[in-house]
Amino acid sequence: MVYLYLSEPDWSSNEDSDSVKQRISLLNDLDSVLRLLIVTQSRSEARLWLCKDVSMINTLSQRHKRELFMNLLRTSSQKKSLAGQLLQMVFEKQPKKAGSILAKKSYMLEDFFRGNSRRILHWFSNFSGTSDTDHKMGAKALSQFAFVNRDICWEELEWKGKHGQSPAMVATKPRYFLDLDVEQTLENFLENVPEFWSSHEFADSLRDGDILFLDTKFFINMFVRLMYKEDMEEIWEVVNEFLTDQPFSSLCCHLLITLNERELLHFLDMLKKFLDPNTALKDLRDASHYMEVILLRHNGSDSIDELLLLNAVINRGRQLVQLLLEDEHKEEKSRIKDIVQKICTLPENPNGLVPLIKECSKNKNMNLIKLLGLQSWALHYFLSDGYRPPEAWETLFEKNGVNFRQSGKHDLLHQNGLRNDSDSDTDGSLSSRSKPKKKGKHKKKRRRRSSRDYSYDDDLLDMDFSYNRTDIQSKASYWLLSTDGYSTSWSSVDLPEHLSRHCFYTWMKWVLSTREDIAR
Questions:
Q1: Helix 248-255 × helix 62-75 angle, to 10°
Q2: What does the pLDDT look like over 306-342, one tens digit per residue?
């Protein structure tokens, strides 16, 4: 049975050096195989994990968040790609702010429409058949400008009928604009009426930002040029406000994917400067605080490979286990299974982790914390591998000093009410109130349902961790554990992740403690 090292050890003990060397050697072997799996074969996925977990950090002030991304936008070698992604977010979330800027540069849209009938028809064909106030988008701008400036542009209007329409006629019957040859009219305006493109009528049609979605890529490129070539102050103001308003998580998820690995490391180094070590240690059960602890101990000389591996074993244990289920990783799975078996069956010794934890408490580099992360992930994999009956889990709890209470049966497999166990915390009077006849009717009604009625539930069960019926049986029991104050019912599907996280949390408390008996 695996030993979890949850009881605080004797810090004055001196662990046998051969035993320590054996453990470290096995953990380094596990490091090597996982590094091959994560860094070489599944690098893009591991990088997405890292970016996602960085986005969970929630301790940055608005000023620091803004400063962090503004620095990237000003200095990054990928700044134009980064700015393009950010502008995409601005267009989607706050199009009116971008539209107000576009209205000031309306004359620049001549080339946008020139020779492009699709854009012309989409923007300028929205005439109403009822009144001129119902014209939309560019159609409204065109009609208003044509009436106000009819002395210089009315003859440029092209009509589909045998003869043109006079301003007086169209003013009384706005539906006549439906007979306008929009494409030819706009071509005429492009050649002969330059005043239209800088008019307030055309500018007003752009303010709501709807035109941005006519060709988003064009406008992103246009705004990027205005940002970096013309250094347009209004765009930087909008970007500055947007970075202040948006959640850090949203900015990270959308923007970090545009950075190359060198730039990502640069971003993380800047982020590290804004993290408060005291805040990071407040709640080590929060995965975001683990990320802060990792970054605070990250050295600028460390490669991103170290971050990818450490984040995977600490924050993405379940995904890493599932990755090994894929057919292309059979060789790595076999090697990892062998190493994990050796790590988790080392001779039991309550002080087995003392040397590692002492070193972690004295050194601030990531390597030693990584060894504890590898140890906790080895437990995760060991407990996930194969079927364990409820009795085996309870023996594991008892042996490692984890108090527990049974929490009942799996909801999908047992839907007939509360469990009637002698050790249940539920008041038995609740179940005694149910009338036998109603129970009988309920069961009879359930029997009338065909097997098809439960096919969806069965699919959900089959899709779970081990993908077989044996594991469904293992999920029949749930436990409330002292590890989280009996607050959550845990099944055997989730126990490996929960217990390994709890172990790492316990060890990290010892590592980060300022107690003199650990630091010595």
A1: 20
A2: 999 999 999 999 999 999 999 889 999 999 999 999 9
> Does residue 466 have a pLDDT over 80?
no
Residue 409, phi then psi, degrees to nearest 5: -95, 165
Residue range of the domain that includes 387: 1-58+275-410+465-520
Together in a domain, 507 and 380: yes
Same domain membership, residue 109 and residue 35: no
285: tokens are 């059960």
Nearest to 255 by CA among 39, 55, 61, 64: 55
Exposure on the CB side of residue 108, measured as CA atoms within 13 A: 13
* In a domain? residue 470: yes
Same-domain check for residues 148 and 129:
yes
Instruction: Report yes or no: 160 and 179 within 8 Å, Cβ to Cβ.
Output: yes
Whether 280 and 224 share a structural domain: no
- Determine how many CB atoms are found less than 10 A away from the CB of residue 391: 9
Residue 371 is assigned to a structural domain of this protein: yes
CB-CB contact of 315 with 289 (8 Å)? no
DSSP 61: -
Q: What is the dihedral of CA 390, 393, 399, 404, to 10 degrees?
A: -80
For residues 355 and 287, state if they share a domain.
Answer: yes
Query: Across residues 187-208, what is the average pLDDT?
Result: 95
pLDDT, averaged across the chain: 82
| HSE of 322, CA atoms in CB hemisphere, 13 A | 12
Report whether 226 contacts 235 (CB < 8 A): yes
Burial of 425 (0-12, 13-18, 19+ CB in 10 A): exposed
DSSP string, 360-415: HHH--SHHHHHHHHHHHHHHHHHHHSS---HHHHHHHHHHTT--EEEEEE-TTT--
Mean pLDDT within 458-464 = 37
For 461, phi and psi rounded to 5 degrees?
-65, -40
Q: Are the C-beta atoms of 95 and 89 separated by less than 8 Å?
A: no
Give the chain's domain count: 2
Place of tokens 């329409």: 165
Cα(361)–Cα(515) distance, integer angstroms: 10
414: left (phi over 0), alpha (psi -120 to 50) or beta: beta
Does pLDDT of 143 surpass 50?
yes
Per the model's pLDDT, the better-predicted residue between 400 and 434 turns out to be 400
Q: Are strands 489-490 and 404-409 parallel, antiparallel or unpaired?
A: unpaired
SS3 88: helix
**Would you state the torsion angle of the CA atoms of residues 161, 162, 164, 168, taken in this order, to the nearest 10 degrees?**
-80
- 48, 92: one domain: no
Residue 427 inside a domain? The answer is no
